Structures are given as structure tokens and as C-alpha cells.
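Input record, target 12 of the design panel.
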């Protein structure tokens, strides 16, 4: 009977999808709200009011510079989403293009693209991002480029593997027999049949991009002041962990909940799109 459920019904009944959707929706909602409103100016300092306890005026208190913590958290969500969307977009566009090319052309094209991907996989994600940012300089734009470059081989390998499976299907063989070229078959038949796989991977890469941005900002080579960043909030709080531990707890929770929400959403999407996976687990 479960197989007869509509897509929306499967989404509603899947607990991981619902939980991930709520957390991810909250992240996006907070980021959008911060564009037009925050309780206080997130970069305005008030030394006299530093380390203030939570009050109605400052719901999460203030930091060592007297800035409103809630406002910084909200603006940090906007920064994390911006970096994630652009970086994953770069990886998705170039990675999918290369993966489809490798699958359609085969031969030397496939070999070169896959060996380049293997070479990039030899370096851990954060290490590769640190190397790139250290080379081209710190900053949000450079962090986006570094994270995006790391995402390219991930999407390239996934796309190539999924596309190869579709190329062996009967309807693709029929399209080739009808005289359709490889480019037309790729656009009309291959890509539409691997979109679901790419959507799931995109949510996972989004979570990794948020983690990578936080790590780079924590090390001082990501988003630079005065741009609010969860990673830099953690970096600034480490020297005052015993004086005011909540300065580290708030951004840490924001990062953890965002990554958890995106991972749950991706896991739920995988099961909802292909219910057979849920039954096998």
C-alpha cells in the first residue's frame, strides 16, 4: 500500500524528511529575515555593555565587544547560506557537466576527467580549501571558490556513475537506434533520469559547505570582519571559554543544527524519491 502513496504523502510520513525540512526551513527563514531585520546592528560595538546577560533587549546577551549575539547569529546564517548556495552551485554546474561529458564520450575523455577527480580526492576537503585560500588569499569570495572547486569532483563522479547506468537502459538504446545524437540523448533522457540523485547529493554538499565555511572562518582565512560568521564567533570565543562559555555554545549549536537538518533532509529525500531504499534499510 505504501507504494501507492503520493510523493507529498511519503514526505509527510517520513520523520527524517520532516525533521530535516523544519530545521533547514528555520535556517533559510532566519537568513531571509536577517536581510531585512535583526534585533540590533550585528557589527555595532558597545564596550560598556559587553558580556551582558540575556534580557528582553538582548535575548542571548552580548559578546566581548558588546554586540548582540542573536543579531550576529542571524546574520551569520545569511553568510553561511550565501557561501553554501554559490559554492555548491559552482560544483553542481561544472561537476554535472564533466560527469555527463565523461559518460557520453567515454574513452580518453572519461579517463582524463576521472583521473583528475581521483587526484583531487587525494586531498581532504578542508586541507584542499585551506591550500587554495592560503594561495589566493583570505576572504568570502575565495572561500566560495575553494569550496566550489572541491565539490566539482564529487558531482562529476556521481553524475558519471548514474549516467552510465541510464545509458544502458532500453529506452536510451531505442533513442540511439532512432538516430538521436549523444548530446540530445543526454539532455532529453540522461539528465532528467539522474536529477533525483543530484538533488539528494546537493543537500549533503550544502551541509559540507557550511562546515567548510565555518572551519575556514575559524582559522581566519574565510569570511573577514566585519561580516558576521559562525566560524569566527567560535574562534573569538575560545579565549573566553571559561569566562563566558555561552559565546561558543550559540554558534556551535547553530552550525550543528544546520548541518543536522540538511543531512536529515538529504536522507529523507533519498528514501522518499526511491521508497525501495527505505525498505532495504
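The sequence produced for target 12 reads:
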Amino acid at each position: 500500500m505504501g507504494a501507492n502513496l503520493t510523493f507529498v504523502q511519503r514526505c509527510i510520513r517520513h520523520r527524517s524528511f520532516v525533521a530535516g525540512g523544519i530545521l533547514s526551513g528555520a535556517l533559510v527563514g532566519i537568513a531571509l529575515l536577517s536581510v531585512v531585520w535583526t534585533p540590533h546592528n550585528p557589527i555595532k560595538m558597545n564596550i560598556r555593555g559587553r558580556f551582558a546577560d540575556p534580557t528582553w533587549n538582548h535575548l542571548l546577551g552580548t559578546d566581548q565587544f558588546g554586540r548582540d549575539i542573536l543579531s550576529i547569529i542571524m546574520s551569520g546564517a545569511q553568510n553561511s547560506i550565501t557561501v553554501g548556495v554559490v559554492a555548491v552551485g559552482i560544483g553542481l554546474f561544472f561537476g554535472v557537466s564533466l560527469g555527463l561529458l565523461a559518460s557520453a564520450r567515454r574513452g580518453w575523455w572519461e579517463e582524463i576527467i576521472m583521473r583528475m577527480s581521483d587526484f583531487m580526492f587525494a586531498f581532504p576537503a578542508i586541507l584542499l580549501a585551506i591550500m587554495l585560500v592560503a594561495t589566493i588569499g583570505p576572504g568570502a569570495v575565495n572561500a566560495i571558490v575553494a569550496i566550489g572547486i572541491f565539490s566539482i569532483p564529487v558531482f562529476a563522479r556521481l553524475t558519471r556513475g548514474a549516467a552510465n547506468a541510464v545509458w544502458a537502459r532500453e529506452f536510451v538504446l531505442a533513442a540511439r537506434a532512432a538516430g538521436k545524437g549523444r548530446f540530445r540523448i543526454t539532455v532529453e533522457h540522461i539528465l532528467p533520469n539522474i536529477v533525483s540523485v543530484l538533488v539528494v547529493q546537493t543537500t549533503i554538499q550544502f551541509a559540507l559547505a557550511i562546515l567548510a565555511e565555518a572551519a575556514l572562518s575559524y582559522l581566519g582565512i574565510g569570511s573577514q570582519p566585519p561580516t558576521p560568521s559562525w566560524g569566527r564567533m567560535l574562534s573569538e570565543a575560545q579565549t573566553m571559554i571559561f569566562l563566558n562559555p555561552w559565546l561558543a555554545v550559540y554558534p556551535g549549536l547553530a552550525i550543528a543544527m544546520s548541518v543536522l537538518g540538511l543531512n536529515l533532509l538529504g536522507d529523507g529525500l533519498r528514501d522518499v524519491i526511491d521508497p525501495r531504499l527505505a525498505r532495504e534499510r
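The first helix runs from residue 7 to 13.
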